[in-house]
Amino acid sequence: KMDEDDDDIPQLSSHTLAALQEFYVEQQQREGIKTSQGFNQYSIGSIEEDWQLSQFWYSDETASCLANEAVVAAGKGGRIACVSAPSVYQKLKEQDGKDFSVCILEYDRRFSVYGEEFIFYDYNHPLNLPENILPHSFDIVIADPPYLSEECLQKTAETIKYLTKGKILLCTGAIMEELAAKHLGVKICKFIPKHSRNLANEFRCYVNYASGLD
């Protein structure tokens, strides 16, 4: 009787088993790298992108360029807010000891590992922010709305306008150019941001101040 039941248990093919084992080994190796001494928890890739949350990390070069632009724009002792732009936040944190402060507003709670600098953020509730985040308290806001829709941009724009003293650096699709101008008064830059994985949509940066991205 038991033998008959055993026959009903689905068996994985040897090929599937080998692939599965390879996946687990790679995963363990990645985790090993992450927990080994000298690993920088802020580096891009330390938290893997989740496509279900519409996450696409910038390339290392793009994240560095945008982080450096934010530091210059914020000025000495400046405050920077990264709204749905975690790979720029991570690049800013790599510049540990520089004279600026930064917060990350992000829906993905995995980023809570960054402690008090993490602020849970849902663009559907654009002004649902902690009491200690005062209006117009950031020298620059860099934002990358998760979806290419006017609704998402409009709601994220409410957050941006609440946070910023004036300067805005927006990263979104090229098709959003007119809407970005309408909701935030920003203009397209010559600099073309790239992602670690190629996106189907053309992506661009927009600013409302004289930036180093032209």
TrEMBL record:
Keywords: Cytoplasm, Methyltransferase, Transferase. It catalyses: L-lysyl-[protein] + 3 S-adenosyl-L-methionine = N(6),N(6),N(6)-trimethyl-L-lysyl-[protein] + 3 S-adenosyl-L-homocysteine + 3 H(+). The keyword Iron-sulfur does not apply. GO terms for biological process: methylation. One of its GO terms (molecular function) is protein-lysine N-methyltransferase activity. Its main location: cytoplasm. It is found in: Cytoplasm. InterPro entries: DNA_methylase_N6_adenine_CS, Efm5/EEF1AKMT1, Mlase_EEF1AKMT1/ZCCHC4. GO terms for cellular component: cytoplasm. Pfam families: N6-adenineMlase. The keyword Ribosomal protein does not apply. It comes from the Eukaryota. PANTHER family: EEF1A LYSINE METHYLTRANSFERASE 1. This is EFMT1 methyltransferase. It comes from Crotophaga sulcirostris (Groove-billed ani). The gene is Eef1akmt1.
